[in-house]
Specification:
By secondary structure, the protein is mainly β. The protein has a 22-stranded antiparallel barrel. Strands 1, 2, 5 and 8 form a 4-stranded mixed sheet that branches. About 5% of the residues lie in helices and about 55% in strands.
Length: about 750
C-alpha cells in the first residue's frame, strides 16, 4: 500500500484545526386551534416533527416553534391530543398551522414524499426507503433504480464505477457529503465505491446549474449525500450481505446520545471478493477482486443557538484483476511468452478526509432563520495503479474553507453570501508523463432567493474566484420556478461551471492497452455553460395519483479534456478541445400508482453527446444514446413484504474505429442494444429484515471487452473499449438488524 494511513490521518487532523459549520435551513411556525371564539387559541406543547423521524420539538406557551429542516423528508407532522393530526408537505420557512377538533369517523390519507422536491432548482430525492429496495452496497450501485443517474460500464475492466448525469461523465457532477465537496478530483474514479450504501440516509440530485455556495466545479449538477444523523440513527444497525460471486460485506453503525445537545456515532464497513471469473474464456478476470475497509466517525452538538459538527473518514481499498488472479482461481492460462510475465491490473488506494463545522443559529435576533457559519474540510488521497508494465500514481492534499452568512429579510427576499478558499496540491504521473499543480483559489459569492410575484421564485447567484494559475473567473447561475398550480411547476435554469482536470487519474481505463499515449503539453480548465428547462405535474385518474415530468438540458463546452481513440488504432490522445463539444439530454418519466401500495415508474432518456474524435465531429464513443427504465415496487399492508423489479433497456452506440487491426482483432463500428434486469424481495420481522435478490437476470455480458487478450503485450491489446456489463448473473442475500 503506497499510502501510510496514519500519516494521512495526521495530516488531515492538522489541516482541520480551525472549526466551522454550515448554516442549516430553519423553519419557524405557530400552532393554533380552531375554536368557538373569533380569535384562535395558541396550543402549548403541541408536537411538531418530521414525519417518519425522531426529529421534532414542542411548541412554546404562545404556540411558536422552531425546527431545522430534515434531510430525510419534507413532510411536517403536527399532533395535539383531541385534535386532528395535520401533515404539511414542503412547508415554507414561516408557517401557521390551525388544528381542528377531532371528530368521529375521520379517515386520514397519507401520501409518500414526491421524488421531485419543490425547490426552485430541479432536485430529485432518493430516500432511505428507496435505498433499501436494492442491495445498494455503495453509492455507485444506489442509482440502479434512478432514471436520471446512470452507472457507466466503460471502466469495468479497472473496477472503477462511475456515473453519467445529463449524458456526461460523473466528473462534471459535483459530489458533496453533508454539503461539503469531499468526493472530487483524484478520488473520482473509485470514489463512488467509497461511500457504502448503508451509511446513507438520503441522496439529493440537483440538475443543471447548481448553487454557487458550494464552489464553481458543478457543470451538470450536484449530488449531495446525507449520512445518518447521530440524533436520529439507531443505537445499533447491522447489515450483512453475500452473493454467489463470493462477495461479502458487513456494515455496522450505532449512535449514542451523550446529552440532550450532544450525540455521536461510528460507522464501519468491510467488503471482500476473492473469487474471480472468466466467463468469456479470454484469460482475464471479468471483474476485479477487491478488499476495502472504511471507517466514519462523527460528532454533533446543537442547543438551538449554536451547532458544531465533526466528521472524519478513512479507508483503504484494493482492486486486483488481469491474468494472475484467474490462474489462482483454478483456471490457469498461458501468459504472453514475449514478455514472460502475466498482465495484471492492480490499484491500491488510501484515503482520509473530514470536516469541522461551526454555526450560530438565528445570529440576528430580529431576523428569524439568519445564521453565520464556517466550514473547514481537508483530504489526503494516495493511489497507485499498475496495468502490465505501465504504472500511474496520484497524490493529493486538499484544504477547503467556506464561510456563510444567511440573511432572510422577508418571505420575498433572502440572501446568502460568503467567502471560500481552496488549496489543492495534486501530483500525478503515467510512466514518464507527470503533471503537478498547486492551486490557491480565494473566492466570494452571493445568492439571492426572490419572490417578485406570487407563485414565482427566482434563485440567482454569482461568484468570483481568483485562481493563482488560471486567473479570475466569474460564475453566474440562475433558476426560475413558476408554480402554475398547486400540482404543476415549470422550471428553467442557466449557469456556468468550470474545473481543473486531473488528466491521468480521471482517465485510468484509457491506458489499459498497448496504444501509444499522447498528452498535450499543458491543459486549460474545462469550462461550460448549462441551460435547462423542466415541466412537472401531478394529477389523478380514477382516483389514482400520477406524476409526469419532462426535461431538456444542454451543456456546451468552451474547453474540455477530450480522450480520442479515433486518430489511430495504435494511439490514444488526451488533449484540449479543438472544435465544438456539447451534450443534449432529453428525459420524460411517469410515476403512477395503479393499485394501493404499487408504484410503477417508466422513464425514457435520449442523449446527443458530440465532440471532435479523429478530426471528425461525432458521437462520444461507448455511450448508449437511448435508455428506457421501468421499475415496479409493491408492499403489503404494514410493509411486511416488499417486492421490487428494475428493467433497463440500453440502446446501441458508437465504438472507436479498430479498422487498422488485423482480422480477429477488430470490432464493429457500433455495439448492440442490451437489457439488464434486477429484482429483490424483502421480508420484515420488526427490527429484523431479510432480503434476497438477483442482478443481471438475463445474464448479458459483453463478449469481447479485451482485444488481443492472448498477447497482452502485443500491439493489438486493448482493454479500454468496454461499453457493457462484465458481471454475469448473480444471486444475493442479506440481513438487516435495527435496534433503536
Amino acid at each position: 500500500m503506497s499510502l501510510n494511513l496514519l500519516r494521512a490521518a495526521a495530516w488531515l487532523a492538522l489541516s482541520c484545526l480551525p472549526i466551522g459549520l454550515a448554516a442549516q435551513s430553519v423553519l419557524h411556525g405557530r400552532v393554533t386551534a380552531e375554536g368557538l371564539r373569533t380569535e384562535r387559541d395558541p396550543l402549548r406543547s403541541a408536537t411538531v416533527l418530521w414525519k417518519g423521524t425522531r426529529e421534532g420539538t414542542l411548541t412554546s406557551a404562545d404556540g411558536h416553534f422552531m425546527i431545522k429542516r430534515s434531510a430525510q423528508t419534507d413532510t411536517l407532522e403536527i399532533r395535539y391530543a383531541g385534535y386532528e393530526t395535520q401533515y404539511v408537505v414542503a412547508p415554507t420557512d414561516t408557517i401557521e398551522i390551525v388544528l381542528q377538533l377531532r371528530t368521529e369517523n375521520v379517515v386520514t390519507v397519507e401520501a409518500d414524499q414526491p421524488t421531485i422536491t419543490r425547490a426552485p432548482q430541479k432536485t430529485e430525492m432518493i430516500t432511505k426507503k428507496d435505498l433499501v429496495k436494492a442491495a445498494c452496497c455503495s453509492l455507485a450501485e444506489s442509482f440502479e433504480k434512478n432514471p436520471s443517474v446512470e452507472v457507466s460500464f466503460a471502466d469495468a475492466v479497472s473496477g472503477a464505477k462511475q456515473i453519467q448525469l445529463l449524458g456526461l461523465r460523473g466528473l462534471y457532477t459535483q459530489f458533496l457529503i453533508e454539503a461539503v465537496p469531499l468526493v472530487r478530483s483524484l478520488e473520482m474514479p473509485y470514489g463512488l465505491d467509497h461511500v457504502p450504501g448503508p451509511f446513507m440516509e438520503s441522496i439529493s440530485i440537483s440538475k443543471g446549474a447548481s448553487t454557487v455556495t458550494n464552489g464553481y466545479e458543478s457543470m451538470t449538477g450536484q449530488i449531495n449525500i446525507c449520512m445518518h444523523d447521530p440524533r436520529t440513527a439507531p443505537s445499533l444497525y447491522v447489515n450483512a450481505y453475500g452473493n454467489t460471486q463470493a462477495r461479502f460485506e458487513l456494515n455496522l453503525y450505532g449512535a449514542q446520545q451523550i446529552t440532550d445537545e450532544l450525540s455521536t456515532m461510528t460507522m464501519l464497513h468491510g467488503r471482500i471478493m476473492d473469487m474471480t471469473m472468466d466467463n468469456n474464456n479470454d484469460g482475464f478476470a471479468d471483474i476485479p477482486a477487491f478488499k476495502q475497509v472504511n471507517l466514519v466517525h462523527r460528532w454533533l452538538y446543537n442547543n438551538d443557538e449554536i451547532e458544531w459538527q465533526v466528521f472524519v473518514r478513512g479507508l483503504i481499498d484494493q482492486h486486483t484483476s488481469g491474468q494472475s488472479v484467474v490462474g489462482h482461481a483454478g483456471d490457469p492460462h498461458a501468459h504472453d511468452s514475449t514478455n514472460g510475465a502475466p498482465y495484471d491490473i492492480v490499484t491500491d488506494i488510501g484515503h482520509a478526509d473530514g470536516f469541522i463545522k461551526f454555526g450560530l443559529l438565528n445570529a440576528f435576533g430580529d431576523m428569524e432563520g439568519s445564521g453565520v457559519s464556517l466550514v473547514v474540510a481537508g483530504a489526503y488521497h494516495d493511489a497507485t495503479s499498475t496495468f502490465g508494465l505501465r504504472q500511474a500514481h496520484g497524490q493529493q492534499r486538499t484544504v477547503n474553507v467556506r464561510g456563510v452568512l444567511a440573511l432572510p429579510f422577508s418571505e420575498e427576499i433572502k440572501l446568502v453570501g460568503g467567502f471560500s478558499y481552496l488549496y489543492d496540491d495534486v501530483q500525478e504521473s503515467l510512466m514518464t508523463n507527470s503533471f503537478s499543480r498547486i492551486e490557491r483559489v480565494p473566492g466570494l459569492y452571493a445568492e439571492a432567493t426572490l419572490q417578485p410575484v406570487k407563485n414565482v421564485t427566482i434563485l440567482a447567484g454569482l461568484r468570483a474566484d481568483a485562481h493563482n494559475l488560471y486567473g479570475t473567473r466569474v460564475v453566474p447561475r440562475a433558476h426560475i420556478k413558476w408554480s402554475a398550480t398547486d400540482m404543476t411547476s415549470i422550471r428553467a435554469s442557466i449557469g456556468r461551471g468550470w474545473r481543473v482536470a486531473s488528466v491521468v487519474t480521471e482517465n485510468l481505463s484509457s491506458y489499459i492497452n498497448s496504444r501509444q499515449v499522447y498528452f498535450d503539453q499543458s491543459f486549460s480548465p474545462e469550462d461550460s455553460w448549462n441551460v435547462g428547462a423542466s415541466f412537472t405535474t401531478s394529477f389523478e385518474v380514477a382516483a389514482r395519483p400520477i406524476t409526469f415530468d419532462a426535461e431538456i438540458y444542454s451543456t456546451s463546452f468552451m474547453n474540455q479534456v477530450v480522450v480520442d481513440y479515433d486518430r489511430s488504432v495504435r494511439e490514444v490522445w488526451v488533449t484540449n478541445l479543438m472544435g465544438t463539444s456539447y451534450a443534449t439530454n432529453v428525459m420524460a418519466q411517469v410515476l403512477v400508482s395503479p393499485l394501493p401500495r404499487l408504484d410503477v415508474l417508466v422513464a425514457y432518456r435520449w442523449v446527443d453527446v458530440q465532440a471532435p474524435y479523429g478530426g471528425i465531429q461525432q458521437q462520444r464513443p461507448m455511450v448508449s444514446r437511448s435508455r428506457v427504465l421501468t421499475t415496479l415496487s409493491y408492499a403489503t399492508i404494514e410493509s411486511e413484504w416488499q417486492a421490487d423489479l428494475t428493467v433497463a433497456w440500453n440502446s446501441t452506440g458508437r465504438l472507436p474505429t479498430t479498422a487498422g487491426n488485423p482480422p480477429g482483432a477488430t470490432l464493429a463500428s457500433t455495439f448492440p442494444s442490451w437489457w439488464r434486469v434486477n429484482a429483490q424481495i424483502t421480508k420484515r420481522f420488526g427490527t429484523f429484515d431479510v432480503y434476497v435478490g438477483i442482478e443481471n437476470a438475463t445474464n448479458f455480458i459483453q463478449d469481447d471487452p479485451i482485444l488481443g487478450a492472448d498477447m497482452p503485450y502485443g500491439e493489438t491489446f486493448d482493454a479500454s473499449l468496454t461499453w457493457g456489463p462484465l458481471d454475469s448473473r448473480m444471486f444475493y442475500a442479506g440481513v438487516r438488524l435495527t435496534i433503536q
